[in-house]
Design a protein that fits this description.
heterodimer; A: 293 residues; mainly alpha; 2 domains; 2 strands; 61% helix; flat; B: 181 residues; Arp2/3 complex 21 kDa subunit ARPC3; 72% helix
Amino acid sequence: MLVTWRYRLRNGLMEKFDPRARWIFSLAFLFAVTMFWDARFLIFFFVIAFLWYFSSRAKWKETRRGWYLVSFILFMMIVINTIITGGGAGGVVPPGGHLVWPLGVTLPLTGWHFHFGLTWERLWFAICQVLRIAGISAIFLIIPYTMDPRVYGVTFRGLGLPDRFAYSMELAFRYVPTLARDFSTTLDAQRARGYEIERVKGGIVKQIIRIAPLVVPVTMNSILTGEDVTNAMDLRCFGTRPRTWLVKLTYHWQDIFLIILGIGMLVVGIVANYIFHIGGFWVPEFWLRMAGV
Amino acid sequence: MQKKSWKFGTREVVYSAIGAALYAILSLATNWIQLPSAGNVSFRPAVVIPMFFGVVFGPIVGFIAGFLGNIISDLIAGYGLWIWWDLGNGIMGMLPGLIAVWMTTYRGIKDIMWAEIFSALGVLLGMGVASVSEMWVSGADVNTVIFANFIPAIVPDLINGLILLPILMVAYAAIVQRSGR
């Protein structure tokens, strides 16, 4: 089994920023954007998100798999939310509104006539959902492509997480290739004994049980190895003093700027929402005019 | 030796890392299995890993195995980072970990039964938290969250977890007995 990280150095603007600053910015963006349903604000966040995304220099060929997933989720969410259930974030879209088909819809050939509750307001809400989810996706989807897996541990330590948790993270990344190799070895050994993982016959329960000869040896083997690693780390006095890290992260002026931008968006969001009560769901005039209202 | 539920020593650091890496690798390796009736829902037998690591090594190990494992799996697959779903996976491993201190043989009916109950609760709570977060992030309504997120997530996770967990527990009991650890 070949495990490859999506990260490679692209020399994009994004990579010039400290990973801690990037995390703070990304999380601040997430919390800020989720305070708004007003498309005017969402467009601003959408533009910021995609400017950030394109600063990575990642190619469509590289990220398309992630975007397919996002598109699928978005499609399901909007089709079910807007067309089938007719909801909208627990009361974001006011009840009533202007029906898209006030006289109902007649299915061609069959002549069946039914009334459909889709409103222009809900359609506008769907557009707002697209803006919001696409913005959030652009910020978070790009992380694996632009952040070196070797710096996750030190980054989270720098963000204030306990040393042990950060080291656990570091260790997990290092274990991935080892366990992938163990998995391949086990799969080959089981295949030599006549094990057929690709067999699709049988129900779900049978398929799951068929996985056991693969999952059990890999898991048990890694548990036994873990005992040796624990002993080796204990012998080297792991955890008795604060840990030092191979990579040293330092904030530069551009990182401070990014953090201020992120925190600024969040503060503006809080003030706009909770003090001035703006940023809620809003339908533009032209949209209703287009609907003939 | 008396077990401590929330201890996070060297052993727990190592097993959290192993659990996370294992969850990521097995998730990627079994991505090809699909639900026959819902082609787009990926069937992940690997969900048993955070549950099992929780039951054996405690709630913190279970949480990290689920949380970090899901992050690594998504990083390798190129799906980006979805913190609220990572958190849900973490809770799925943390809840079974709450009974780690009461585990004795790992193969007795009582042990297995409690592990199954807490794992099921972990799935319900973890996926519940992740699904409800979609209301906050995506603006979906309750019905959408239930039918598009919660049910497609819990059904395969419950089936996988409840079938594979006893198998892993019995195998672990054999290891404990043989190695005297």
